[in-house]
Amino acid sequence: MKAWHVTSLGEPSAVLEAVEIDIPAPGPGQVTVRVLASAANFPDVLMCRGLYQVRPELPFTPGVELCGEITALGDGVDGFAVGDRVLGGAVLPYGGFGEYALMSATETFPAPASLNDAQASSLFIGYQTGWFGLHRRANIQPGETLLVHAAAGGVGSAAIQLGKAAGARVIGVVGGEAKADVARRLGADVVVDRHTQDFVEVVKAETGGRGADVIYDPVGGDTYLRSTKCIAFEGRILVIGFAGGAITETALNHALIKNYSIVGLHWGLYNKMAPELVGECHAELTRLADAGLIAPLVSERLALADVPDGLQRLADGVTVGRVVYEGGV
Length: 329
Hints:
Blueprint: E1 2-6, H1 12-15, E2 16-20, E3 30-39, H2 42-49, E4 65-73, E5 85-90, E6 100-110, H3 117-121, H4 125-137, E7 145-148, H5 154-165, E8 169-174, H6 177-186, E9 190-193, H7 199-206, E10 212-217, H8 222-227, E11 231-239, H9 252-258, E12 261-264, H10 268-273, H11 275-290, E13 298-302, H12 307-315, E14 322-326
Parallel strand pairs: 7-8, 7-10, 8-9, 10-11, 11-12, 13-14
Antiparallel strand pairs: 1-2, 3-4, 3-6, 3-14, 4-5, 5-6
């Protein structure tokens, strides 16, 4: 089969190498799938650079999230059959940026019929992160104000739709007019272009000075620090990630004085500590998708040959919506 290998560490466009390798055989508890689509995620970029918490041995095929058709079942796999259309996480080193991939049966779920392959491949990481963050960690309520940073990115775009589905008023922060258009299409009530506007001032103006009840922050750094200036009384700042590159040190006395919570989310830990909740989350996401309340916004469909360029543009922060390798494109 054809696939992309990371053979050394660095920028995706420099380290991805086209290879021909054997189709992987599933081990116990695994399934082999023909890749129908694989969404590009920032963890793929970080793994290429050697900066992610998961550091697979070289060489490996990135693509941590995918939709595929099962072609073989490993020992001990129940509940699935050859030919099933599924989505979930890849088992590295056989990620989704190839013609076939491996998946763990415990992180594999039926793909909703209401979503096409590219959309289904984008439903696992970003939407599960958003659902656990907003509902389980922040306990978002109807009528609350949700501020979403990087609102046109993979996790941010999911948070907009999930926030709207939960009955929140959503303010999305983006960089540039193209990304602002994406946030509007996703349903954000108010869109802030950080290149020309101060999100702190906008949030205060839109909430009568009260601030946002929940702030969804996958950026970190100065974005987090400035978010503390517009968090409401008893608000919750969700620490989702550090796409901005800086891990912030914060003065905890400020959280005490303003009476807000700083809430961390490591979604991957739920797969280890409470996998049953991941299944419940997928069932709820399927319900929302079937009801037309959520649908990943896929802006680009890539052929296999175009994966390095697409992943590099994601790394450079110039993509909008979801960028997806789609088999057969």
